[in-house]
Design a protein that fits this description.
With about 120 residues, the chain is mostly beta strands. Helix content is about 0%, strand content about 55%. The strands form two sheets. Strands 2, 4, 5, 6, 9, 10 and 11 form a seven-stranded mixed sheet that branches. Strands 1-3-8-7 form a four-stranded antiparallel sheet, with no helix packed on it.
């Protein structure tokens, strides 16, 4: 069974940066699709960024130009570099991955809080 473990969340002031990491274990194969989602209090979970095994990326409009998703296929690890953070980026961030879609496996989530 594939397991995803996130790290790197925390408290940061507006304008600051954080880097999230997520390691996938339980498989010797490279997951095809990896992504980051987030869920703010009282809101639905939303996709932040996705990346394919070949490196193709997509971003939510709200984070374009500020966030960068990347991955290390050899380590089955995905990263999210978050710059110029805003209070509205405050949420629980979830790593997700799969063989066909990005939502087959989920991490436990890591809290990101941006203070104004």
């Amino acid at each position: 069974q594939v397991q995803l473990v996130e790290s790197g969340g925390g408290l940061v002031q507006a304008g600051g940066s954080l880097r999230l990491s997520c390691v996938a274990s339980g498989t010797r194969f490279t997951l095809n699709a990896m992504a980051w989602y987030r869920q703010a209090p009282g809101k639905q979970r939303e996709v932040v960024a996705t990346i394919t095994k070949g490196g193709g990326t997509n971003y939510a409009d709200s984070v374009k130009g500020r966030f960068t998703i990347s991955r290390d296929n050899a380590e089955n690890t995905v990263y999210l570099q978050m710059n110029i953070l805003k209070p509205e980026d405050t949420a629980v961030y979830y790593c997700a991955a799969g063989w066909v879609a990005t939502n087959e496996y989920w991490g436990q989530g890591t809290q990101v809080t941006v203070s104004s």
